[in-house]
Design goal:
This protein has 1 helix and 6 strands; from the N terminus they run βββαβββ. It has 128 residues and is mostly beta strands. The protein has one domain (7-126). A hairpin with a 2-residue loop joins strand 2 (34-48) and strand 3.
Length: 128
Amino acid sequence: MTEPSLNLRVRGRAGAHYSHVPGGDPSESDLNPISLDAAAAIELELPLVGELFRASVGIEGRGIIEGTDVPVAGTNRVTDTEFLELRLAVLVPVGGGPGLGIDLAVPLLGAHRSVQVAVSGDFSLFER
C-alpha cells in the first residue's frame, strides 16, 4: 500500500490587455492603454482518505504600459488597470463529489477593487 503523497505545483501566466475608452473631454484624445497581466501561484494537493484536498496561494496584477496614452481621470475603474491582489483558494472534498471551493481575493494595490469571496461546488449534494 502506498502512502498518500503531497503534490506541489507552481503556476504562472502573463498576457497583454488592450482597451479603447473614448475620452470624456472633446479636447482630449481617446484612451487606448495597453496593459500587462501577470499571475503566479503555488498549489498544494494532498490526498485525504481517498479524497483530494487542494489549496493555493498566489498573486495577480495588471499594470499599464507607460506612454501608451495619457490616462483620462477615472478610467482605471473602466479598464481595470493598475491593480495587485493576493488570491487564496481552498477545495475541500464533500461526500465523494467534486467538493466545495472557497476563493478569496484581497486587494494589495488599486483603490477601486474590493475584497472578493466566491463559493463554488456541486450544490446538488445538499438536496434531499
